[in-house]
Specification:
four-stranded mixed β-sheet, alpha/beta, 14 helices, seven-stranded mixed β-sheet, globular
Amino acid sequence: MAWSQRIEQALRVQRDSARWRQRRTVTDNRVRMLTLDGQRYRHFSSNDYLGLSQHPAVIAAWQQGASSAGVGAGASGHVTGYSRDHAELEAALAAWLGYSRALLFISGFAANQAVIHLLAEKQDRILADKLAHASLLDAARHTPAMLRRFAHNQPQSLARLLAAPCAGDSLVVTEGIFSMDGDSAPLQAVAHHTQQAGGWLLVDDAHGIGVTGEQGRGSCWQQQVKPDLLIITFGKAFGVSGAALLCDTPVAEYVLQFSRHLIYSTAMPPAQCTALRAALTQIQHGDALRARLQENIARFRAGAAGLPWPLMASSSAIQPLVVGENAAALALSARLAQAGYWVSAIRPPTVPPGTARLRITLTAAHRPDDIDGLLEALYDAAG
């Protein structure tokens, strides 16, 4: 079949199965409010959990950084793109999270791909939680190592896989808080089984960093686990973008020497690093923001208890309301939009077939009337 035919067939299947993805042009995004196509909505699909993308100190830091260093790094960090701003941010992150080193990446996807691609060789194996993020699973599939997936958040399932013989090393991969279900990994048990088998543990804490643990240090800190490899991202609670790998010095040097994702990519703008330093300060002193977020989560869950759609067991900012079929999830999302509430419908392959859902995300910026209004719109749609 020719490429053009394959493309047409794939697009037809995507439309017919109600999986069609469509980008919408946003003209204004204020965390709790969103404007697109001239319509203003209360926004419940943002990962900006603490509202820091709109924080005056973070904005001012980016502006100041751009004024002093320009708007781009100009080169790879291995050439001339690594600035004092990058070095200071890496040092601050390492000290905050208790690691020897931190390395910056342009995105969380790039960080996960870089680390897994670099470490896993043919004799090794990767044991990943079944619901791990696409960036982790895609990276694992594209290595020569064997990929096995253990049952979601089931340490005994992991233990059985680890008990099987392996000629090389074992890399266990999981998340701190899962992006689609909003539940937390049992990191202590996962770490215990990994250590017993002599493996390494990689935790992607994209949705936990900044919002859980002392000073927002994340899921691993909260559960008193220190993985060999910790990935944090800056597009959620930090309110900016980018990512970092936290690790020991030998691993950091190995990544710097051999990671194609670092060697051949332009470094993030120094001004972005100054904004991230400001966001880190807000996170470290952000107990009031985290408390407000927890209050909003509790308010929503209490109000949603009587809805006909099951609300998944999540204590995080991610509150998935499982609708079932793709078309029904899209219809419910559209009904909420008509009422002035923007909530994205998440469909396969992002989630398993038959579990299409509204992925409702709460932030510290939401007000009680925002949440009450969303609940009222959901109950109206259910009636």
